[in-house]
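Supplementary Methods S3. Complex input for the adenosine-5'-diphosphate-bound model.
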Amino acid sequence: MTEKDSISAVKGIGPKKQALFYKLGIHTLRDAQEYYPRDYEDRTRIVPIAQLTEGQRAAICVVIGTEPVTRRVRKGLEITRLKVFDASGALWLTYYNNRYGTAVLHVGSTYVFYGKAQGSGAQRTMMNPASEFVPKGAQPPRRMYPVYALTAGLTQKDFGRVMAEALKVPHGEEWLPEAIAARYQLVSHAQAVHLIHQPPDARAVIQARRRLIFEELFLLCCGLARLKDRRTAVEGLYFPKGAPEDFWKLLPFQPTGAQARAAREIWHDVQTGRPMNRLVQGDVGSGKTVLAAVLCYLAAQNGCQSAIMAPTEILAVQHMKSLEGVFASVGIPCALLLGSMTAKQKAACKAKIAAGEVQVVIGTHALIQKDVVFQNLGAVVVDEQHRFGVAQRAMLHEKGLTPHVLVMSATPIPRTLALILYGDLDVSVVDELPPGRTPVETFAVGEHMRRRIEAFIEKQLAAGGQVYVVCPLVEEGELALKSAEEHGATLQKCLPHRKIGILHGKMKAADKDEVMRRFAQGEIDVLVATTVIEVGVNVPNACLMVIEDADRFGLSQLHQLRGRVGRGTRQSYCICFGADKGAQTKERLKVLCGTNDGFEIARADLAQRGPGDFFGKRQHGLPVLRVADLAADLSLMQQAKDEAAQLLAQDPVLAGYPALRERVQQMFSDHAQEIFN
Ligand code: ADP
Ligand code: MG
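Predicted complex, serialized as structure tokens:
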């Protein structure tokens, strides 16, 4: 970065503001170019005052009718009012604490104001509108105003200054193959960058966005295709021996119809001579674990090792507990490999894995460390796949020659999207719950219900049940610990005779395990936890889950949490606090109360939150997208995917397209090295 490129070179941006821009990831003018507006204010259409509707954001072109009058309401609050008019009517402008800003507005001069109209009749007002002077005889400016996502201390004006400079810097060379740009009638990269920041009208925004979305998806598809190519082998292991039916005999229960069907699909895959690549989607509690076991069983019958990777230690331990006995009964040795084990324990475990003394290895991401070497890894299961990145999956995969891969997810994603994200992945859907479950009854409540909920907790405990309390969502860390502990203490006060345990992600694995074990055995009555209990843990006697600040969770996540109860024969309940936090939250929670179907909830979640949020940063493990929206831009995604495939077929390492190649590497910076090897 040269002095000249730094945003500190922009007039009006001192060290303080510079630091704030850094916080947004903007160091250079180039970075600023790529910081696209969050939204636009459409000031291209001037609306006559008489036609303003309540709540509408609009631009008006008016003459100032009265000098601004400032009134001090109380300490720290000044209100400035003035009246403006156009040919159709008059309107008040109201500003808070803006005496100096409004001082320039003189009677008789013309301005364009942009803001939200409120009230009606003589009291109609615009609050804190943005203003722009219109010189005598000039036409009012009609523009699209970009709105940037800010951080405290920065204003849109600051962005305006920086962008004005940033757009003077060349916008980067064209790197999208010409033929592709022509086929989809895309504007050039440089044009798109210019238009996205300074669009003359709404159409220009669409044009710019289309190009930027396409290029982003195209880069994504090129990278994904490369990653996949590296994984896809022509030949797979052949598992002729054994059948799911043999395995079902080892279990204390009958498989559900959906489990039996998925197991047959898996069985079929491992006999085709091609590597299996299958996604199992099933609601929480639908019994996906036994499907992992089926695959491990088939691998073992054919002399291969298998690995199950779980996102948390608690979950890995639980898988171990539920599978160890089953496998032991047919002489298949299992082992657990966790990051928290001592170096000595790990070394012993790894030695056994390398020597082929264990057939099934269950663990966390400890499994993908470099020094874990399998003798003959034939099958890989990734549980709760959305918790892992593409790269992590690939790394486990590479420990085998061409192992069969099963990924399991309780977060349903639309099938079309799954196909694109995971390529040639086959999908099994487990859409049936094991028998004997009573659906969880869910209630959304407000703070005024707290006393009654506490009484309800006690009632459930008195009846012999157990309770989870999920703490407000804060970043895992010191704060989360504090929040869990404070919560536990408060609860202890109102339930002095009950045993309350605390579970938190920052606790040592051994401590976590101990708390979980005590809860599972009924030694703890109420488990106050952060979201570490979100996935997979199974305590059938737990019949009530209370979720604090439910408004801060996504619907799908709430559904996952709720899946921790309703696993036994007791009627179970889920109570979500937060219903008093606005109409939108109430609406969202209503969906949760109305259905126990995870797929339906995922659909509602997508519709309400928008997919950008749903497929949040860490969910899919893919690079973060700036403009494209994986779910909304599906058709563009398909085109980008086809184009990427075609180009890579001709030129697999993009030798003829160095600029494109560099872009792909930038996007997949986590594994830029491997991607074009
Ligand atoms: P998930 O799909 O959420 O991973 P699990 O595999 O953890 O679900 O299964 C949840 C519970 O249901 C476990 O206690 C498991 O033993 C039990 N289970 C699974 N399949 C069946 C079945 N067919 N009949 C009865 N119980 C089952
Ligand atoms: Mg599970």
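The pocket of adenosine-5'-diphosphate (ligand 1) is lined by residues 253-256, 259, 282, 284-290, 410, 434, 536, 538, 567 (CB under 6 Å). The two ends are 29 Å apart (CA to CA).
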